[in-house]
């Protein structure tokens, strides 16, 4: 079972990098093989929504980290084996050498597959791997593939320099008779590469392994959550439960609202992958989907304004909620694309309606602090803000959540501090001299 999400959410959370900017995927990608990279990418695109699967994967990675298991295979072996196996399709019944491969490529490919099979056999027999009970299912599956009698000669092969006849026999075995078995084995090793890679990330960054809970009163508990891509980040605590599952978040510009929303939703996304997260503690009830709206673009192709794009986004999520799905829904500056009066009324109406969806979680940020007063009549709503402290005329930001609704209004102070009005009146040079 997969967690429902969409391209907007993946873009908002910056799951995959762009140009010179790293994404969350890049942070977790310490894989040694191209196959491991591909599987890791699949995992990021298809988070889980099954509690047992999530906890099992999380346990495997956590125990690999705890046992300090390292990836024991040379990546160059995989390069040779992959090139070799990729050229199996053009073989004919009477030919064991593919025209696309040179004799050297075949020799290298056969040698690489033999070495990999022997190394995997040793690896799954190691005591520290056998102790990882959550990995038993996959370890036994690997063992079953390896211990088939067809591979007996491979496991027992001692010669480093194979004869032409031996290479020919192994070539027929690997690329024709047992090709499917070899490919399944390779995929298991790629999966292993991912587990060890992510375990190393958890150790290096001191990330915590979330626990997926049975459905109950607490829906989400986060202690010290921060964005994994930030250095020296400040963590925050968040608890959402059946009595408070809608958060109305306020704060001045630059106070850290968008970063907090990304921190929270990224942690929930990664937790549904069974991955470690940037926090001190995390427990959560498994959801059906995550939908964020942090950087919603205008839809110029259909001539839609930003406001209409927001309306369509809300409509899509409303349909998912009506279908009974439990979701995490994030809106950063809901209805910013319209005038203040309409935005106020729409924010109260939509956020108030969200409070009726008890099995879902909502965090709505807004500059319209007056809407918070109207929302106090809706049971299930909590109020958090990110404060600004004034040091003389300079705003300073704590980035720490506090209870309540902010009354910070420092926009004009920032505009004056930047000398914009003076520049408009006197020109840049004279403004700088003052």
UniProtKB/TrEMBL annotation:
Keywords: ATP-binding, DNA-binding, Nucleotide-binding. Gene3D superfamilies: 1.10.1420.10, P-loop containing nucleotide triphosphate hydrolases. InterPro entries: DNA_mismatch_repair_MutS_C (IPR000432), DNA_mismatch_repair_MutS_core (IPR007696), DNA_mismatch_repair_MutS_sf (IPR036187), MutS (IPR045076), P-loop_NTPase (IPR027417). One of its GO terms (biological process) is mismatch repair. It holds the Pfam family MutS_III. SMART domains: MUTSac. Residues 244-432 form the DNA mismatch repair proteins mutS family domain. GO terms for molecular function: ATP binding; ATP-dependent DNA damage sensor activity; mismatched DNA binding. This is MutS-like protein. It comes from Chitinophaga dinghuensis.
